[in-house]
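New to this. Explain these tokens.
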Amino acid sequence: MADNYVPTPGNSFSLEWKGKADKIASFKSVDGLDDETDVLDTTESGPKGKTITLKVPGAMMRKSGSVTVKYNFRGKAGDDPLFTWRKEVTEGKVTDIYKDCSVVLYGVDDTEVFRWTIHKCWPSKYSMSSLSASSNDPVEITVILTHNGIEAGK
């Protein structure tokens, strides 16, 4: 008999950074929580001269990447901590641009289920959705956080 379990929905999550215990913002989506290793194809001569191709971890054991977060604009850029952080980057205030952030996934009972820690990340891009006079959709902000590795686990 299979264990009884309830799948965790992916619709309750937040972004936090060290030194800031509360949520940075409420988000619509988070993409790029990937942990990847380069794969190297190597060919060897096996028993009786038969050629064998093996897939082994490459020289770069972990690839750094980027995480994309999306959320609704709240009407004032100065109240947006990610906008402020991005502004610090563009103004060359490089001493404080790197932060360890966490994406936290919550279960149906609002308790923490899983956490991804994004090491030494910084906002490399901050963009707004298109504006249209014929649309009632909220303005969406997209921020790309470039990082130096993700650690998965609670």
About this structure: The chain has a mean pLDDT of 85. Residues 99 and 137 are 32 Å apart (CA to CA).
